[in-house]
Amino acid sequence: MKAQKVEMFVVPMAAPSDTSGLQQLADAGKIKPDTLVAIAGKTEGTGQHDDWGRVWADVALRQWTSRFLGISIDDVAKQVIFVLSGGCPGVITPHIAVVTREWVEVADSDSQTEKRLVVGRAGSEPMPPEEVGRMGQIRKVAEATHRAMADAGLTDPHDVHLVMVKVPGLTTSSIKDAESRGKTVVSHDLTFGPEGAGVYANDAAALGVAMALGEVKESALSDGVVRRDWSLYSEVAMTSSGGEKRHGEVLVFGNSTASRSSLVIGHAVTKDFIDAEGVRNALRSAGLHFDGGLPDETDLSRLVHVFAKSVIPGSDQIRGHRITLLDDVDAYQIGKALGGMLVASVTGRTTNYVSGGERNSHQGPPGGNIIAAVVRTDG
Amino acid sequence: MKAQKVEMFVVPMAAPSDTSGLQQLADAGKIKPDTLVAIAGKTEGTGQHDDWGRVWADVALRQWTSRFLGISIDDVAKQVIFVLSGGCPGVITPHIAVVTREWVEVADSDSQTEKRLVVGRAGSEPMPPEEVGRMGQIRKVAEATHRAMADAGLTDPHDVHLVMVKVPGLTTSSIKDAESRGKTVVSHDLTFGPEGAGVYANDAAALGVAMALGEVKESALSDGVVRRDWSLYSEVAMTSSGGEKRHGEVLVFGNSTASRSSLVIGHAVTKDFIDAEGVRNALRSAGLHFDGGLPDETDLSRLVHVFAKSVIPGSDQIRGHRITLLDDVDAYQIGKALGGMLVASVTGRTTNYVSGGERNSHQGPPGGNIIAAVVRTDG
Amino acid sequence: MKAQKVEMFVVPMAAPSDTSGLQQLADAGKIKPDTLVAIAGKTEGTGQHDDWGRVWADVALRQWTSRFLGISIDDVAKQVIFVLSGGCPGVITPHIAVVTREWVEVADSDSQTEKRLVVGRAGSEPMPPEEVGRMGQIRKVAEATHRAMADAGLTDPHDVHLVMVKVPGLTTSSIKDAESRGKTVVSHDLTFGPEGAGVYANDAAALGVAMALGEVKESALSDGVVRRDWSLYSEVAMTSSGGEKRHGEVLVFGNSTASRSSLVIGHAVTKDFIDAEGVRNALRSAGLHFDGGLPDETDLSRLVHVFAKSVIPGSDQIRGHRITLLDDVDAYQIGKALGGMLVASVTGRTTNYVSGGERNSHQGPPGGNIIAAVVRTDG
Amino acid sequence: MKAQKVEMFVVPMAAPSDTSGLQQLADAGKIKPDTLVAIAGKTEGTGQHDDWGRVWADVALRQWTSRFLGISIDDVAKQVIFVLSGGCPGVITPHIAVVTREWVEVADSDSQTEKRLVVGRAGSEPMPPEEVGRMGQIRKVAEATHRAMADAGLTDPHDVHLVMVKVPGLTTSSIKDAESRGKTVVSHDLTFGPEGAGVYANDAAALGVAMALGEVKESALSDGVVRRDWSLYSEVAMTSSGGEKRHGEVLVFGNSTASRSSLVIGHAVTKDFIDAEGVRNALRSAGLHFDGGLPDETDLSRLVHVFAKSVIPGSDQIRGHRITLLDDVDAYQIGKALGGMLVASVTGRTTNYVSGGERNSHQGPPGGNIIAAVVRTDG
User: Fold this and answer.
1) Which residues of chain D lie closer than 8 angstroms to A53, CB-CB?
2) D22 and D79 assigned to the same domain
3) B320: which residues sit within 8 A by CB, 6+ positions away?
4) Which residue among A79, A106, A133 closes a domain?
5) Is C300 exposed, middle or buried (0-12, 13-18, 19+ CB in 10 A)?
6) For residues B188 and B182, is the Cβ–Cβ distance under 8 A?
7) Cβ–Cβ below 8 Å for C189 and A172
């Protein structure tokens, strides 16, 4: 019987085009052309839709991977999923988390009761611009999520703790293309503002995950609910979008008894934007058993990585008091930065994956945010 | 024997010109013309040097106070100290903390061993533009701090836990004035950037407090050390500057056995920018005795207010990892916002006074920030 | 027979609350309580939807006017139209243009063939949030425009050269109100971004003017064309919106033989974003007859004021070359600033009314902008 | 006798890494490894000191050039001068101007009286961080300017119409380096704000050019005059700085009878920030003889390129009226954008080289800006 063994390496980047950390992992034999399955990271730059830091990082990492795998750049996406989230405002260190998956032979009798980390990936059907932020995108993400779960060997949605998705957004030229064919698009705003194409794409992707996992029934979904009916959401979807993409890419993380990894993943949801306890709950969910209210250094030494969303609440009230974030011109940057602080103040480190800044989202419940944690087991 | 009884009321503001909270306090008899000594708060707006939200709030609050006290607007500053810090990015609720001081008669025999909150205030000599950010400003703040301590009835610097100072900054016209008289000014940059007049003024004020309290020897001070020798700092100074001012204003908070307040103040310093434990230490210093690592709701119900700085570290490293905040165009806003999150994630509320965003400061040690807390005693 | 005599005074403001220029006009007898009909101006600040400079200016100017007219602040809007456009980026001097209208007795025989400046104003029916950016708003602006034309004594749309409109936009609370009543709103984005409520309101107002003037047929209008069908537009509408408003306000400027003003208004449309000749054409349209390609100082001395839009083109091409303005995070400020430069480089002065920054608009044809000019006649 | 023949090709870029225009020039035989001497351009991105668009463009263009010349990337700088100015706000098309220089044999008797375009280049001695913005940098730029003039075959400073310089700025790490060696640096501010290291470097470079050309006497120069004594300036220096550089690079353009180019260069200085006539004067200086006040299309068809500075005036007044640009948080972007509009409104095209945004500079007289134009001769 073949069993997965998944590893995750967190590597800081000194510049958008810095691939030295990847090279060191390769030189040390920790990643191999046939084990490298995903690179998820935070790139420095503004994080806005025209952030050249993110684009440059994407080009540089794909070039390196293409050489490492000995395949063409265009074929890289078929083997390795890239989820690069732009923008490291505040206390978010530019970094990548490199995910490997090895298949090890285990005796059929060698049963294991503890669930350990597995990973699966899938590409979606192409998504034309008129589908962005709408049912077409939702359904194609749902379908790809199912295939990624199968790739991970997961069948029970409760074993899924994190689904990272990258989907096509809109660009000036893709809008022109759609409209020249008589189609409408969901938005003419290319930003991540509240009616921006970027957030519509992200939110359709999140609803696609929710549909795949049964968090939301397909019958409850329609074009009209996207960014309107906030009672519909996923608790494990972290999604992003880029104008340059044509297909969606889905990366599923979960736990399975069929895994031989030494890692476990867990997740939790914060109850509101300042809820540090929600972050600690995610760590507990992944198996950190810190005594008292706070983890100590020994606890934290087992923490491998945190993936967090930092969506701005749709209300101007937190615990009964007004905040002005919704009205803030710089809210996109500040909202992301605040999530970085919330997580870093708990984990005691700045190499956390934190994306966000959108005003409201179907990624997590209204006001709350998703936090996933990967922890190394004691044994 | 006359003894101080100090109270502090935290009042959210719904708009820069909102004085309804003040009026309610007045209507309820909680503040009186002869007890109102200070208003310290956070105003909404960009927080930049030309933030009209802060200016408008200042005008509106002074007008209200002028009517309340029955004196001219120009005379208000002689009786009531205003420390309005602009900018409420993120999770900082626009609010004011209204400070009253009553003198109650106590029997000489009625001795008390516990130290309780006292407050003192003083205005400084006028500070011409050529003194901003230099020894002239430092010495005048030091002198005013001594007088404010005397006004508070404090003699031991260790009893001082917070010194809020507002001093003149520079403006286009005050620079022109100085240079027309053959004087130089410390900077031509009016922003709060690393060489901005705003931070030079703030930092000279902080060194003035440090000199007054003996945290730094006068002999160690010179024009050249301001914003250059970071080993010199105060652990209790929170300073700000405004181009419209001509004098400095100093507000000292400390604890004294001569006080009959039911409030106590304490303070601590964070060890770095993500140090939530530093915030908790400030709460402990003021007398919150929360068990375990975290305060619960009963603990927090005794917390009256937190005053915090959120100065951006001068290094691009936090606990060994690179952050890009120093290079960030929006660092001033983000840096302030991050302090708001650090405090709110501990206090569970957003009505905290958090000023900052400067890159490095003599307010607090390198990398660390000052947090002061006011707590209601159990008894 | 009564005839209008309209004057316009351009007054710089030294701060958002500066009413000294108004006071000087009043002291000099140039404006009187019964002649003051409108104040249109540019206020300093960010110009964003939460620009406190604009709000403060509005409050200060209304307070002054209320005292000047001897009526309550709430009644001011019934007598004087305020069109304050926030944001003076670049070379736009904060200022107001104060418009007066006097009724002078002229003999019936005293006929005049030259058309001169007239002004008319009207308030609209209240516009609930669900009408913002939609047909409800369009129709109510059209209706008010008809009444403002009547007030101006204008019947032929060709005599109308400028229609300034201020309408309600959306706010967090008005959206909440609409949705609590089961209504939808046109956008959840409060900014002036491409799908922002601010631009939907502005554009519905522009289409309302276009409908009133016959520039667009009512049958061509529907909710769906707003910010989608750019072939529909007005060549004389300059519109703005503010969340605090409940009614629309319309101010019509045109020329009439029934006027005894010494001023004339004209307008033109630029062919693209860098078309300085379009600005010169507006000056010519208002009666400046400069010889050669350029006006000289004598020509310009007759120019009283310019009102200009600076809408960002919806295409990323200008005369065949790509620009990146559509993708620029700061496009709203920069787009407005660029119009200020285009106009100032022609008029040789910075006290021009320039509003804009939106990406595309029904105010003017695709890519072009409306410029109106008021000129003093020779005689 | 060998004579220079200089050509200039203006090539739009579709993205920061777009080298297709260069490749087309190479394929068409217009540039050759031994004729390519300089690439000066505007790259898209924020234009701030951490603008990854500019950095990426620099890397991509150098890589292409390295392959084209068949030399290592590190050696490229010895043969080809790169002056890439970041930021294309508003109506500035991302582009490069590619400069070639060929040496043609002419008979000694073949004398020519008309002066035509020549170009020369030189690298400077290395500039350590403590010299940035100070006399060390000034002197080294002056020295390199002399050598670049010699390389161009120019001896009379009046024949020099444009000197483009790129010098080292400061970075967090170069500041650390200097201070660890007991040296001070001119500023701790890495931005292009009024006391930023970027502008100090730019301005020292400008004074270096001024010293070389005799516009300013060496005896008038000292560390203390940089960004303080605005009466000292160059009328032909356009300078920029980058933290990544260690040497200065100087590119001199002028006219000489020894040239066999069909191009001529000229320059002028605007009298203030809105002076379109100053731009027209630059075109005239280069030999465009447009009749009337304005150039027509035939005139403009001979215009090859415009190089312009857009430095923000140090005063808050333009022609007697206040502007708020000096106080504007976004002034750096807006100031640059405004220069782009001023030039484009005259040239009728957006492919102009416009750098700027600094508040005040020794590049040009106080309030005015340098405009250089390259024109193709009639013959």
Assistant:
1) 52
2) yes
3) none
4) A106
5) middle
6) no
7) no
CB contact under 8 A, A46 and D46: yes
Alpha-carbon distance D94 to nearest alpha carbon in chain A (angstroms): 14
Task: Provide φ and ψ at D165, rounded to 5°.
Answer: -130, 140
Measured on CA atoms in the order A210, A211, A215, A218, is the torsion positive or negative? positive
Do residues A163 and A156 lie in contact, with contact meaning Cβ atoms separated by under 8 Å? no
- Strands C36-43 vs B317-318: parallel, antiparallel or unpaired: unpaired
Question: Which residue in C90, A42, D85, D48 sits closest to B331, CA to CA?
Answer: D48
A-chain residues near B323 (CB < 8 A): 88, 90-93, 350
Cα separation, C122 vs B51, whole angstroms: 34
Residue D152 sits in the same domain as residue D231: yes
Domain of residue B78, residue span: 1-106
Q: Where does residue C5 fall: left (phi above 0), alpha (psi -120 to 50 degrees), or beta otherwise? A: beta
Q: Which two tokens stand for residue C366?
A: 């695709």
Residues of chain B found within 8 Å of residue D195, distances taken between Cβ atoms: 187-189, 193, 195-196
Cα torsion through C357, C362, C363, C364, rounded to 10: 110
Name every chain A residue with its beta carbon within 8 A of the beta carbon of D59.
17
Distance (Å, whole) CA A47 – CA D312: 28
- C217, with CB counted inside 10 A (0-12, 13-18, 19+), is exposed
| ipTM for the complex shown | 0.96
- Tokens found for residue B179: 């240079």
What's the distance, Cα to Cα, between the start and end of chain A in Å?
22
Q: Are residues C87 and C125 in the same domain?
A: no
Strand, helix or coil at C315? Answer: coil
To the nearest whole Å, the CA of D53 is away from the closest chain A CA by 5
pLDDT tens, position by position, for chain D (379 residues)? 899 999 999 999 999 999 999 999 999 999 999 999 999 999 998 888 778 999 999 999 999 999 999 999 999 999 999 999 999 999 999 999 999 999 999 987 777 889 999 999 999 999 999 999 999 999 999 999 999 999 999 999 999 999 999 999 999 889 999 999 999 999 999 888 899 999 999 999 999 999 999 999 999 999 999 999 999 999 999 999 988 789 999 999 999 999 999 999 999 999 999 999 999 999 999 999 887 778 988 899 999 999 999 999 999 999 999 999 988 889 999 999 999 999 999 999 999 999 999 999 999 999 999 999 999 997 5
Radius of gyration of chain A (CA): 19
Structure-block tokens of residue A51? 């952030």
Statement to judge: residues A118 and A254 lie in one domain: yes
The residue of chain C nearest to residue A333, with distances taken between CA atoms, is C329
One domain for residues D155 and D198: yes
- The secondary structure of B89-109 as a DSSP string is -SS---EEEEEEEEEEE--TT
User: Is A309 considered catalytic here?
Assistant: no
Intra-chain end-to-end CA distance of chain B, in Å: 22
Q: Among A323, A324, A341, whose Cβ lies nearest the Cβ of B274?
A: A341
Minimal-distance CA residue of chain C relative to A227: C188
Positive or negative: CA dihedral D33, D36, D38, D40: negative
**Interface contact A17-D59, CB threshold 8 A:** yes
Residues D123, D97 share a domain: no
Q: How far is CA C93 from CA A18, B95, C239, in A?
A: 46, 33, 20
Which positions of D are annotated as active-site residues?
166, 240
For residue C237, which phi and psi values (nearest 5 degrees)?
-90, 125
Asked if residue D112 lies in contact with residue D279, where contact means CB atoms within 8 angstroms, the answer is: no
D322-D323-D329 Cα angle (round to 5): 145
Q: Chain centroid to CA C309: how far?
A: 8
Q: Give the number of domains in chain C.
A: 3
